[in-house]
Amino acid sequence: MLKEALNDKQVVLGSALILFMFCVAILAPIIATHDPCETNLSPEVKLQPPSREHLFGTDDLGRDLYSRMVYGARISLTVGLVAVAIMLLIGVVIGAIAGYFGGVVDTVIMRIVEAILCFPSIFLILMILAFLGPSIINVMVVIGLTSWPGVCRLVRAEFLSLRERDYVVAARALGASHRRIIFRHILPNALAPVFVSATLSVGSAILTESALSFLGLGVQIPTPSWGNILTTGRFYIESAWWMTLIPGLAILITVLSYNLVGEGLRAVLDPRLKR
Amino acid sequence: MSKTLLEIKGLKTHFYTSRGVVKAVDGIDLIVKRGETVGLVGESGCGKTVTGLSIIRLISEPGRIVEGKVIFDGDDLLGLKKERMRKIRGEGIGMVFQEPLTSLNPVLRIGDQLTEAVIVHRKSSAIEAEREALALLDEVKIDSPKQTLWAYPHQLSGGMRQRVGIAMALMLKPKLVLFDEPTTALDVTVQSGILQLLKGLRQKMGLSSLFITHDLSVAAQLADRIVVMYAGKVVEDAKAGDIFKKPRHPYTKGLLDSIPKREDKGRLRSIAGSVPDLMNLPKGCPFHPRCPLKESRCEKELQDMRRAEEDWRVRCWKAA
To answer: Which regions in chain B score pLDDT beneath 70?
Structure first.
């Protein structure tokens, strides 16, 4: 399966880009050319187009955009991973319980899930963040807390079909507990679609974080994030195009690469999509 | 210690479907003595497997055990708390399933699945459990037990998988083993190998078992006693030697005649008609529409199980 995935051009291209982004994020202190928060308001420094000294130019406060982008990568990638981890934890456990036990438990859980799905998630996130106050940790937690219903439904559907398998009956006949059957016997068989959906969700979590930072509810200035670089950039879109174009491209490429990997994996893991 | 290991009394398991109630098991009595192998025989859909699953209480919705007693080693299993019941499964009663490919988990190694029972019930260490698993794989005549422990189910042949299935059920040395058509999914040569193995194990370990099969010729090789089921009820219950010589119930006779014999040329014999719809059983004896001996009484009333001879019970008006 891994071999097949590595033969898929989409997956390879996507993972290479993601790997590159991670290297940038991890090596940020080494590859950044300036302090990302150092300001210089002199007219010769601020709002300068890309040059040899400032690879991506400078922003309205004279900060080096390249260094800010490099540090911003840390935020975007962390948010993507942590939010999706929270989402998976909640979604998988609740979906597994609903699908495995069925009946009343399932009905109650699925009605709650549907109720949550009724709200547009960005609206829900904005509402919760308005109460909790904007911070990077809150952003990750809130994205995780609002995005689990999708995975939950996916896992539930898998469990509904897998719990009828003979090997599950066999495990029960051996006296295995519900917890053991759920996590050891059924879950590993249900992971393929979960994995695909998790990959796709990382992309959307990064996008949500950017949107929130853009709206001022995410990562707070002066800490750089792609979203808040974009939001300051929009005031100067006519004079300093690099301030919007570069963070915009970075978000686009990152989200795109996660989607490439996700879609590619889906094609590999789902026999119905095979050519 | 009483001689009886398992006694089923008046067990009824019904399925409440949207179309109506399916009386899959409708008041059966059955006894397995210690050291004995009882063959539970009947066509598909007559309630054999449901009986097996009812014993260890693994009937799932919409099925329900409506009434009856399953007395195993002195305890009524149907009244036990869930935790006690979980101990009995595996430790007291082991089960071998029909389809060895689907009853093994495709993502776990054979070793993991074999040691599971020991780890769950006895909290043994992994090393100890593995040693026991190796010994048992050897017992069920698997050539290279070490490699097999590391293999995934799809890497084994059908016969090997079923040997693993048997080993899994035997890991905790249960007092009773339920075999649910363990040879049905295998081809004939592999089947005879498995039967050979079961005979050997039975002698060596003194197994008591309930052997569910639709194939009387398989039951003939293993069982001390034969219980014949039809449409959720027991129709004949006798020692294996007796029943094969002189079946009393016309259904048992029909089953025996359906076994292909070497002298037979041409057509295979079968019982005319098919198993009745369990939701809509014919009045009186459920077998009467297919019965060559039926008389008017059979369409009105069902005979109770009655003694035909010492240790021989049958449910038929016409049986002598």
So the answer is: 1, 264, 320
